[in-house]
Design brief:
This protein has 319 residues and is mostly helical. Helices cover 74% and strands 0% of the residues. Helix 2 packs antiparallel against helix 10. The two termini are 28 Å apart.
Length: 319
């Protein structure tokens, strides 16, 4: 139904020729703006309700209490998946976790998963790739954060966190005096925050869709395939190496990933590229350098990069 309406808008109202580069690019752009925009509005409101019921302070206190009996990494990774943060905006909460007494490995589980899996990313995935790929990606991202956080926690890397982080922890004395309202009473602020998130990511979504539309309409079929072909074993690590110097959030890069897939790049290779763009970036490294000593930063980035390469091969195998 929506496809028919977009056809009429693009090809009848605007008079663009079906099959022409401009026609195909504009059709791609309009269709995805409608689908992704609707999904973002719905999902951010739903997640706003969840976050209102389960605020950050309560989750932090719960994780630090020791009552989770070994499931701390999974809980932190799951919490990272339901918070709408990119890699750089996850860092202040990462610091708060450390200063609140949560072990380093548990905070790393949150930091790894938070930019990779969130309601924005999943809403986009659902619209672009369907529910099966969305579920597989979400499960993989949560598992990645859980396993890597647990592994790095076992290495005893706390000494490689900068001293000032632990010093601030002694000064905390945090106020937890928030008035509890009913969810219905919080709905206006939840809706405002949800729309703030939508408006905040909208420029990235639109920029990504413009790039994706340009690739979809103007780049010849097979152009990318010759460079990132599924037949070459180096395609996945090459896509990760290319992505690491870049920076974007999931909203900005997913439409580009969709266009790359339609041009012949295997889905696993394209997803590895996306995960490296959103989960490993130079701005994130520069911010984390203020928190982590070089050895911890190298361990963190190296472990995540190698794991993303492994996931890229896995996605190519199963999808």
């Amino acid at each position: 139904m929506l496809d028919v309406l977009v056809d009429k808008l693009v090809f009848d109202l605007f008079g663009l020729a079906e099959g022409s580069p401009w026609g195909e690019a504009f059709h791609y752009f309009v269709f995805d703006v409608i689908v992704i925009g609707a999904l973002l509005i719905v999902v951010t409101h739903v997640m706003g309700l969840i976050n209102a019921y389960l605020p950050v302070e309560r989750v932090r206190t719960w994780i630090a209490s020791g009552r989770l009996r070994g499931s701390e990494h999974l809980v932190a990774s799951g919490f990272g998946a339901v918070t709408p943060f990119c890699s750089c905006s996850s860092i202040p909460l990462f610091l708060g976790f450390l200063q609140g007494g949560i072990p380093l490995g548990v905070t790393l589980s949150f930091l790894i998963t938070s930019p990779l899996v969130n309601e924005v990313a999943l809403a986009l995935f659902l619209g672009l790739f369907g529910w099966k790929v969305t579920l597989l990606y979400a499960a993989s991202g949560i598992l990645l954060g859980t396993v890597l956080g647990w592994g790095m926690g076992r290495l005893g890397l706390g000494a490689w966190v900068e001293d000032w982080v632990w010093e601030i922890a002694n000064d905390q004395g945090r106020k937890e005096t928030e008035e509890r309202q009913s969810l219905w009473g919080q709905m206006p602020s939840i809706s405002r925050e949800a729309m703030d998130i939508v408006m905040g990511v909208a420029p990235y979504v639109l920029a990504g869709l413009v790039v994706g539309a340009a690739i979809h309409g103007f780049v010849p079929v097979g152009f990318f395939e010759q460079y990132l072909s599924g037949e070459g074993l180096l395609a996945v690590p090459a896509s990760v190496a290319v992505a690491v110097p870049m920076y974007a959030n999931a909203a900005g890069v997913l439409p580009v990933v969709e266009s790359l897939v339609t041009k012949g790049i295997p889905l696993g290779t394209a997803l590895a590229f996306m995960m490296a763009v959103v989960g490993l970036s130079l701005p994130e490294a520069m911010m984390l350098k203020k928190v982590m000593k070089t050895r911890l930063l190298a361990t963190f980035f190296g472990s995540v990069a190698v794991s993303i390469v492994g996931l890229g091969y896995f996605f190519n195998w199963v999808l």
